[in-house]
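pasting for ref. prot 1 ->
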Amino acid sequence: QLVALLRRPEGATIAQMVAATGWQAHSVRSLISAVLRKKLGLHIVSEKVEGERLYRIDDQAPAAMEMAEAQ
């Protein structure tokens, strides 16, 4: 569910992800950091647009390759 939101071209805000899951904001941020970035190796882009922080998956720059090169 969250991955689908993050794969949209416009991405998703923490508030949108909280509304979609019913989770607390810190749980959503933890999932992004620990599971999506580190375990699944997805490249999550975070940008501030019109005062809101948006998160989205950037399939053009896989984090798994970056992490493998760093090790």
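and prot 2 ->
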Amino acid sequence: LDRSGQALLAELLRAEAARGAAVLLSSHDLDVVASVVDRAVLLHGGVIAGEARRRAEQSNDAFRHELAGLG
């Protein structure tokens, strides 16, 4: 997806999550992941290599940095 499509999809996923829906997002784009999820799992070779949960006060940038450090 291009940037505008990513932004629209992220907005729709956040809206569904706010309504109480469980959302599963698979992506290599950590910016999109950090802007949508509260919990992320990093897979390497099909095996869980790391996991992170967003803290209440954590910004998207700080969460993205934490996600990048999992690998």
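The radius of gyration is 12 Å.
The beta strands are 39-44, 47-53.
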